[in-house]
Amino acid sequence: MLSLRNSVLTCARRSMKLGMITSLSANKHTLPELPYEYNALEPVISRDIMTLHHQKHHAAYVTNYNAALERLQAAISKNDISGQLNVQKDLIFNGGGHINHSIFWQNLTPDTTEPDAKLCAAINARFGSFENFKTALVATAVGVQGSGWAWLVYNKNNKSLDVTSTANQTPILPADGLTPLLGIDVWEHAYYLQYKNVRADYAKAIFDVINWKDVSERLSKATA
Q: Ranges for the Manganese/iron superoxide dismutase N-terminal domain (predicted)?
């Protein structure tokens, strides 16, 4: 998890490694298009949830991240160290929201997909079986206090898969030794209109629309 004690410039450099930032001010980030229609994931995720989630929530993270970058650039131009540090929390929150949701949309699909042989082997090696993995990830999602994310990650330090969680919109970054492969958004806006307060039902149901091709490709890139 990225610590708020890290410098704001370190945060920016880490985001650059993900290809999310090309300049602090020259290039505006934009809301990515979904690779499917808003109703494509029904009945698992409703059209209403997808529309609000993408057009309102993700869009707000992009807008606020661009604004935070402008404030950072202004503080840098004035050699205002306090201003640079003050904007860090907004960079992490909104930049993290942009990164996390950009992964999330790609992690989902209306099509039937399966983990490739490499991902299956990694899951079995770490968790013993796919069902054990699913149980672990669902439990992690349910166990997030308040808002946040549950993740399947590749740990480069021990060359193994793991499940973990992050609070709010804190992103998982390569500089931390972890590569995010699959994320489950457990902010209430991701499920409450449909699943009410039963987060476990949402966390279990979302497995029916996971894009295992995307998850498999992320693992292949992480281990290349």
A: 28-108
- Pairing type for strands 160-167 and 178-185 reads unpaired
Strand, coil or helix: what is 4?
coil
pLDDT at residue 17, as a whole number: 38
The reply to whether 101 sits in an annotated binding site is: yes
Q: What predicted TM-score, i.e. pTM, was given to this entire model? A: 0.86
Per-residue confidence at 176, pLDDT binned at 50, 70, 90? confident
Query: Which domains are seen in the chain, by residue range?
Result: 47-107 (1.10.287.990), 117-223 (3.55.40.20)
Is 54 assigned to a binding site? Answer: no
- Model confidence at 22: pLDDT above 80: no
Q: Give the CA angle between residues 13, 170, 66 to the nearest 5°.
A: 55
208 annotated as ligand-binding: no
* Partners of 201 in the β-ladder: none
Nearest to 34 by CA among 191, 211, 220: 211
Whether cis (ω within 30° of 0) applies to the bond prior to 43 is: yes
**pLDDT 10s digits, 93-118:** 999 999 999 999 999 999 999 999 99
Measured CA to CA, the distance from residue 57 to residue 74 in angstroms comes to 26
Q: Tell me, what's the pLDDT at 13?
A: 42
- 35 CB-near residues (< 8 Å, 6+ apart): 105, 106, 109
Residues 210, 141: contact at Cβ < 8 Å?
Answer: no
Q: Quick one: which H or E segment has residue 181?
A: strand 178-185
